[in-house]
Amino acid sequence: MANKKPVTILSLGGSLIYPDDKPDTRFLKSFRDLILRRVRRGERFAIITGGGKVCRKYQGAAAKIRPMSTEELDWLGIHVTHLNAHFVQTLFGDQAHPHIVTNPTEKISLRRPILLGAGWKPGCSTDYDTVLLAKNLGSSTIINLTNIDYVYDADPRRNPSAKPIKLLTWRELRKMFGTEWKPGLNSPFDPVAAKQAERLGLRVITTNGKKLKNLEKILDGQPFRGTTIE
Question: Is the pTM of this model over 0.85?
Answer without folding.
Answer: yes
